[in-house]
Amino acid sequence: MQYLIGIDVGTSGTKTVLFDTNxxxxxxxxxxxxxxxxxxGWAEQKPQDWWNAVYKTLHAVIEKSGVxxxxxxxxxxxxxxxxxxxxxxxxxxxxxxxxWCDGRTTRECREITxxxxxxxxxxxxxxxxxxxxxxxxxxxxxxxxxxxxxxxxHILLPKDYIRYKLxxxxxxxxxxxxxxxxxxxxxxxxxxxxxxxxxxxxxxxPKLYESCExxxxxxxxxxxxxxxxxxxxxxxxxxxxxAAAVGMGVVETGKAFTTIxxxxxxxxxxxxxxxxxxxxxxxxxxAVPGAYTVMSCTLAAGLSLKWFRDNFCKEEIAESKEQxxxxxxxxxxxxxxxxxxxxxxxxxxxxxxxRSPILDENSRGVFFGLSAxxxxxxxxxxxxxxxxxxxxxxxxxxxxxxxxxxxMLACGGGGTSPLWRQMMADVFDCPVATVANKEGPALGxxxxxxxxxxxxxxxxxxCKKILKYNPAQNAxxxxxxxxxxxxxxYRTLYPxxxxxxxxxxxx
Length: 507
Known about the structure:
Elements: E1 3-9, E2 13-20, E3 25-32, E4 44-45, H1 47-65, E5 72-79, E6 85-87, E7 97-98, H2 106-116, H3 118-125, H4 134-144, H5 146-151, E8 154-156, H6 158-167, E9 171-173, H7 174-177, E10 183-184, E11 189-190, H8 192-198, E12 207-209, E13 214-217, H9 220-226, E14 233-235, E15 238-239, H10 240-248, E16 255-260, E17 264-270, E18 282-285, E19 292-295, H11 302-312, H12 314-323, H13 327-335, E20 346-348, E21 366-368, H14 376-400, E22 407-411, H15 418-428, E23 432-433, H16 440-452, H17 459-466, H18 477-506
Parallel strand pairs: 1-5, 5-15, 9-12, 16-22, 22-23
Antiparallel strand pairs: 1-2, 2-3, 4-7, 6-8, 10-11, 13-14, 16-17, 17-19, 18-19, 20-21
Helix pairs in contact: 1-6, 2-3, 2-4, 10-16, 11-12, 11-14, 12-13, 14-15, 15-18
């Protein structure tokens, strides 16, 4: 029997899973770590914490499974995107990593846009300069920590630091590199034009690979430390969303998924590069060689429901403990009793500002149409509908770009809600299904490792062999008709409030 390992280096922790080649998870281990906020709006993590977590979880799954290490044929790594890891010439970490949710680089993003030009930046990198992306972080360190910058010999992304620790190789994959504002996304290579304009030495950047290519092999030192076999191949791997796409089978044109986690993501596969000139959604290289993905990111999807639960659903939380069920289950039951449109109440889910598709950090949450008739559960239904409207608005941008999925998969915490899935099917007007396999990014990079090891002939063939799907929920024609009127009104609210949001930010 042959086996594969998938490692997912997330923000809250690392999850490592050992699979057989049929996609069955034989052993899994998770290790959490801390996030540090030296100042308001900053977010950092210690790369050594990531490595400690990978070391512990790798050791645990090998020990739990009892498989012979030589039977492990490949390792794939997924990770949080955009984080900046700086190493000196000896491969030692120079400072804590500035991670994806750090917001300190507004000035640097403005500088990147002015230096390169907003239109040209999107033409090359397929994305505007955003505070979450890596290039702004590089410029921030260069400006504010010149002594650190002077010692910098290598720039890596979070998962690629783990690759370096496993193999001694400095490399990355094109899906993760797409979120740096430094990659020529259409040509899948570093942009000499941008690097020259920003005065960043190309020698600092890692070598680029496709996600399923072998980038290096486990060293003897690491093999002895963890219990792996020396020489075990490590493939390029992928950024977290690209890895999740493989883990759900979104690797062919016509397939997409919507995640309702803390944030909301609509993620579609495309066999050709397609860029929104307005930068409302992101275009990245896919984990499938030669293919691309288009994705949106809304900032307060599941977060909106969590905010509502924490502030208005104390009774449901208490009752859930008595019944030993999730409070969201009880909330779903109550929201299902409220008619479509929440009795003429619409919610704008801009609790944290918004990224896709409006790119407005000043926008804020709104209940529109609130009256004395409304109950707590009308507000709850409005929150759930407003989150789906925001995802539909992103979905519409994909349709403008001629990226038109035929089927939609639902994942994340919100994807477990039958009510939310039905709303999605009705508002999107397309079938919505779920994947039976639950390991997500870890499974995705294990499949990539299987391709690199020669076990599967391609990423698509690996997915076909492994993945199974639950029956889809289809759109209900009458529901779709009712939602359409509310959605059209929803779309008019942000333009009417845009200037008022800016004025509020100045108070």
